[in-house]
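Exam review. A common question shows you a sequence with its structure tokens and asks you to describe the fold in words. Practice with the pair below. Do the first one on your own.
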Amino acid sequence: MDNRLYWIWLSLACGQGSRIAIDLLCTLGGPEKVYRAKRAELAEALGKDDLPVLNRLDNKTMTHAKAILNQCETSGVGILTPDSTAYPRALYQLRDAPTVLYYVGNLPDFDSRCACAVVGTRKMSDYGKKNAYDIGRGLGAGGAILVSGLALGCDGMSMAGALSAGGVTVGVLGCGIDVIYPPEHEHLMKRVLQEGAVLTECPPGTPPLGSNFPKRNRIISGLCDVVVVVEGDKKSGSLITAHHALYQGRDLCAVPGSIHDPGAAGPNGLLLNGARAVTSAADILRKYEFLYNDTLSMEAVAGEMARSSSPDDVNDVAARMKVTASEDKKYYGTGLYGGQKIPAGIFGKNHGKKKPAVPKTIPPGKMVERFAENKAAEKEAPVAHTAHVEFDMLGENEKKIYAALVPDVPMLADDIHLKDLEMSQILAGLTMLELSGAIECGAGGYFMRRSADISKLDETEA
């Protein structure tokens, strides 16, 4: 059986953004061994009362996985898994690393090149628009890989900047690879695919649901050496990416803005809490010049920055690449955003005419070693102490809500579906859980449950 089927089956059973898959791989030794494990063995490996996941893992039906693999092969979509030699080393460091990445285009070598994520608000000011564009073109000219979410606003402008300088960009989607989201960026996606790639953890056909995007953001930051927040208010979704960056041990930078501008509150707040202030691509890349001396060129960055861009230049590029900003549409939150199916020809004239190459793989034991090495290193790292939660002090509603939250995955209140609880009861319960320290509320109104095992270190061990 094609080994990729085991990976697809495992990703479907465990779900996106879950740590369970990696824990099972490290315990049992590979996706095929997880597939062939008996229910009792799976229950022991899980080590927790997670009946829905256990039931899905106990279901050995491959129908859905085979359909996905067949669709990918007939449409020219590549499949990247942790046992592939092309799987970025940086992703092994994630406790919730993606077990499957669907991609189109040309994947750059993340292991030999500096990768930078540039994120920001969908409602750009002229200041944010120019900064996103200038930072993007500086990164592109210097040889860095620019990673972003192909979102409206600052994300799109930074990608346009990198592309205008001949750089390589990678877009990470929160929907299936066969869905364009946002639909306004169809032309931008075409440009990205000329030299770079678009990838996603979501199986083909997955609509752009609100719950997908916080999970998507962990991949954006996880692929990169550094995350740069250009602009955004206190509730900007870009702060979720910043949160993931800090949690993953990535470098975090922010572009300072006026203290009187609400749109600068996000990056200014990050700066107050220790993020590195940057005003150009040179500020960002200087730290990585010696680490990537074969692929980074600070001279090229300086040469690109010497050609200063005017507002007219920025607007001209935005118009030619059809980069847009949000116009008060609800592009972030709960529910379905829309999107559209990929039009014929967007992936290129020859796309889909031949099956994508199957990446070379490494032995399961070596793959598990890579995850284990990073897991051991993570335990030695100082982690902020989290207060013990007395669950006996919580009511039944709070316990149900807590159980419905997925550890370390930001969720909106609207994404918590409990048949016997009204929304008012869910909101009240979330408030009590936050006050008790069981969960935390982050940017954009997202709530997140922390896993117990991340708070074992005492402050004296730092």
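Now try the second one, then compare your answer with the model answer below.
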Amino acid sequence: MRTLKKYAAPLLFLAIFEAVAVALWRAKGNAFYLWNFSYIGCFLALGLTLYIRRFRYARHVVQLGVGLYMLVYLGLICRENMQIEGFWYYLSLGSFEAATIHYAVAKIFGPLIFGRGWCGYACWTAMVLDFLPYKHPAGPRRELGWIRYIAFFLSLIFVGALFLLPVGNLERILFVSFIAGNALYYAAGIALAICFQDNRAFCKYVCPVTVFLKPMSRHALLRMRVDADRCIGCGKCGRVCPMEVDVCDPSRSRKNGTECILCLECADSCPTKAIHL
């Protein structure tokens, strides 16, 4: 019973993704969904298991496993635009396929369960940014969150223009935009990280996907919690949090509360082990 409780989180993630995999497989009649969501669920469960077993790079294992799968296999090989413009495009076609299902599960409804866990364990942009040396913000947070809304609406305008203007071969244009968009994201993310000495500056200020993630994450089932009886108020959790979340505040309106990526840095740094998922 103690072992089962210890591994409850990885088992929960595996069960959730397996349920989605089977449901979509049966509903769509396509074995791809069984493979796709089983693969992601297994990697998430593996990463959490490695973390429980104190493997230092557990989260990076998941980031590389899922991020490269999404970027290389689905994006470059299968030519599915998994960026936000791909979501708008397939949604406009009324196609409930790879990109639209991905957004529904990982970025629109899924965050009601795991918040912004996608950002911490599966994002192929953050997969690269998290290897930069600026793991903890060097200065105060900037008031630049408005940039994400510009990026969000630009992606919508871009897709709208594809349908309104007399252009052909939209699938090819969308594939090229996937490559160009990722190159732009990486360039902007690295530049912002160096400029602000903060690996996650792109996530905080520019990433358009956070427009979906933030409101749902506010009601997430899985969130970092603090045992008030064990907390000594040392502030280490706040200093190591890459997203600058006030972990010690138990309310859902806590500072940067919708930004938590479940990286578990706060739990690792806590000297009294008062923080848990």
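Model answer, second protein: The longest strand covers residues 225-226. The two ends are 19 Å apart (CA to CA). Full marks require stating both points clearly.
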